[in-house]
Amino acid sequence: MVNVETEAPNIRAKDAIPVAEEVPPFAFVLVKLASRCNINCTYCYWFRDAEVYNKPAVLTIEAEDAFCQRLEQHIEEFELDQFVLIFHGGEPLLFPKHRFVELQEKLLDIEDRTGCEISRGVCTNAILIDREWADILKSYNVTVSVSLDGPPDIHDKYRVDFKGRGTHADTLRGIAFLRAEGIEPGRSRFVTRTPTLNRFYRMWSKSSA
Ligand code: SF4
């Protein structure tokens, strides 16, 4: 029999598990602006759950205001000087443009009141990006990450609309609007095989040239 008092390893739980005051306050939040999408990717996990359709299509104004209020409290409580927000979905640009602008203004007000710099980014399939969206994103200094899986033969196999049609050309059109405003988007992609990754980088380098 083991005598726990004398033979148990001399490690206290306090030493093994970080205690609350050692955990830094969070300074990053992913904000789901929309719980719907304008396309129907074959690998999308989000819409496999029918419950998604019971949620509001876009962030409600009540939830938006509650979020901004809580964000400001958090920044003040922990005296943060930097915070990162990433707008996500579904497709976040289903969020109405005027509401997106109003949200950015609320965030600027929080920056003014707290002195905290709130960096903003959006992850999008870029299909809805037009000149106006590109202008809004540039005006509010929102960085953009675009989902693109590679050349058309790969991208169009998985990233399809609700009629099964590929969306590669639509995504490139959105990227062109961004570039016309001087915004160079980052990329996120779903990779199936290493050759796919190689072809992706070749295609992106050519399109950036
Ligand atoms: S763009 Fe994103 S959210 Fe929309 S269907 Fe494709 S993976 Fe899902």
Helix content: 40-55%
List SSEs in N-to-C order.
HHEHEHEHEHHEH
What structural class is derived from the secondary structure elements?
alpha/beta
Number of strands: 5
Radius of gyration: 22 Å
Q: Strand content of the residues, in percent?
A: 5-15%
End-to-end Cα distance, whole Å, is 72 Å
Mean pLDDT: 87
Instruction: Count up the helices.
Output: 8
Number of domains: 1
Strand order of the largest sheet: 1-2-3-4-5
The dominant shape is: globular
- Bound compounds: iron/sulfur cluster
**CATH architect. name:** Alpha-Beta Barrel
CATH third-level topology: TIM Barrel
CATH class assignment: Alpha Beta
* Poorly predicted regions: 1-9
Largest sheet: 5 strands, parallel
CATH 4th-level superfamily: Aldolase class I
Textual characterization of the structure:
The structure is a single chain. With 209 residues, the chain is α/β, with parallel strands linked by helices. The protein has a single domain, classed as Alpha-Beta Barrel (TIM Barrel), CATH 3.20.20.70. 42% of the residues lie in helices and 14% in strands. It is built from eight helices and five strands; from the N terminus they run ααβαβαβαβααβα. It has helices spanning 4-7, 13-16, 61-77, 97-114, 131-139, 152-158, 168-180, 194-208; strands at 28-32, 82-88, 117-124, 142-147, 186-188. A five-stranded parallel β-sheet has the order 1-2-3-4-5, covered by helices on one side. Helix 4 links the parallel strand 2 and strand 3 (117-124). Helix 3 runs parallel beside helix 4 (97-114). The longest helix has 18 residues, at 97-114. It is globular and about 50 Å long. The termini are far apart. Iron/sulfur cluster is lined by residues 37, 39-41, 44, 46, 89-91, 125, 147.
